[in-house]
Design brief:
Mean pLDDT of chain B: 73
Order of helices and strands of chain B: HHHHHHHHH
Structural class of chain A: mainly beta
Distance between the termini of chain A: 49 Å
Shape of chain A: elongated
Number of strands of chain A: 34
Number of helices of chain A: 7
Strand content of chain B: under 5%
CATH architecture of the largest domain in chain B: Orthogonal Bundle
Number of domains of chain B: 2
Shape of chain B: globular
Radius of gyration of chain B: 17 Å
Number of helices of chain B: 9
Oligomer: heterodimer
Strand content of chain A: 35-45%
Low-confidence stretches of chain A: 39-89
Radius of gyration of chain A: 28 Å
Largest sheet of chain B: none
Chain lengths: 472, 185
Amino acid sequence: MSADLEDALARRARAGIDLYDARSLASPVHGRVRRRRTVRGLGTGAVATVVVLAGALGAVALGSASPTVDPATTSPSPSVSASASGDLLPGVVTAEDLLGTVGGAGADGGQRAYLCTPAAPRQCDEVTVGQEPLLEIVRTGTSVEVDAGHVAYVMWTVRNAGDQRIRIDKAWETPVVVTESDAQDPLATLAGLGSELPADPVDLAPGDASAGAGTIDLDARPAIEAGTAVNLEMLVPIPFADPTEKRELWLRVTSSDWVNAAAVESIRSSPLYAEDLREGAVTRHSEDYDLGSAQTALDCVLDDADNPRTSSGGLDPFAPRCEALVVDAVAPLLTLTEATFDVDEASGTLTVRWIAQNTSGKRLRIDTGGASVAIEDADDGSGSAWTSMSSAGSIVSSGSLWTSDAMRKALLRSTSVVETVEPWQLFAGSATLDLDEAGDFAAAHTSVQVRVASRSDLDGSRELVLEVPWNG
Amino acid sequence: MSRWSETLDALMRERGRALYGYAFVLTGDAADADDLLQDALVRAFKRGRGPEDVTAAHAYVKRAIQTAFIDTHRRASVRPRRDGRDADRVLQDPTTASATRDALHEAVLSLPPRERACIVMRYFDGLASPAIAEELGISAGTVRGYLTSAIEKLRRTHGDFGLDPTDALEGGDEHVVITSKGGAR
């Protein structure tokens, strides 16, 4: 009876087999496995590195080998290196090799670099070395945490993006923080570095990564608040093979990825659950549909068997009547940053795509995979509305979702993916619904309903659903 | 060359095509299949000595493909987009066997990841729901729920292709079989 389906899948597999290219797969897989094995094998015996940047004109201290500078802040952090060797090896790229390929500033390809005199303050020329980027920043190994906006704890991972081993000096890997409103000048940062470079040469094989961490004192710079988009650049010195060489070559490693600075305390705190949000919640009334900055929610008490998320047989969505609440009267915990409405006339569907952000400043334990789109005519008080819902995550009412002065409908689904969403983290979703049912959606109120997980989430007798309105 | 590296090379040489085909069935896209197979291979070989031999590696990587597929969609910023259409609004009237198979596979690709994985494991791997449950580390009841929901959706959104819900829940093999001669599974 299901032969057609079996045939369809088998035929698709054969089509895929024809596309298989072992050679294109082998190299990246070997590289990724090597890196994972390398990183797993490190961490013990790690070197403590302290980097304190005191702004563009400030002095910088690294560890104890730079006695000329006061370490304003000490925050030893583990530094992970791929391999360390005191001897230069044949086939390892050094500064001399790179200077043999040097081009002027802005040359095509290659990697930006600074060739500097060792005297303090350094005098540097911007150059381009190599034909392709030599090092790259690994986005997943990069984070910035801020403490009261004035001290940034930075973690980074730099990977050899080339096809040859390259020697770097880990002791002087230096982060440079860029925000949309303020950028450290790499040249000024280099000029402010101490004059005596402690050496910690490390050879990175192709694909190998070097991780490190440091503290940046922002006292002389504008504070970086939690949630600020931050771009991290790295200045990585490449040692010369000739020990008598006094010049310095620094690679400037940039990334197109931005990360959101997180508050230190928020990272270390446990996430908020439904139980936390119910504390201090107050009843919300139907005339308070648009509460502006407040965070509203629906508290649903139901028979466990009616909850499609926890009921073994309940796969259909369910829209119980729930008590309307305000869980935070000061600021929304979640905010929709984007919503698009795509009409497909041919299929008669409306697809709503949305992006939400955790604007609470705290970690939230929420069901990002079970969120729903709600469309209603909130001004309709006729009481004769119909409501349509789908397991695809939509609830549409021809009138209002209010069922009484203090009760509203929420959509509960069987689909559930609970995650801890970090402060300022974005998450997204979409729902496709019948165009006819959506009606005049442009004039209607649209919101996204997001369930908050409970500490005992297997219990489906009570659910708390945040309402996130779209005000676009 | 290290042992894991040799096993990895042998696996990609002998079974890579079949594993890639499997990933392609799940994702429906060459680039996504590439990423999925890479992730699965890394999971299999990233620690210890890695799988003992090619057959063990094949089984491990195939399971990793299934779980990585679900995990990847769980992490994806854009959540699964289910198809809320009804059959009578879908202009799908296949008149040839080829068109039917294409339509069916497109329909499978519209399913949420867990349901899609269960359908592929049931009708491509030929596994019964208890075996699927064991592979995915979830209960057999949950697998039956996914299969029921998937079949219902396929019938509702893409018409009746002769899919039998009873066969979906009751049929299939109880044990996982890994072919050793470059079979497609």
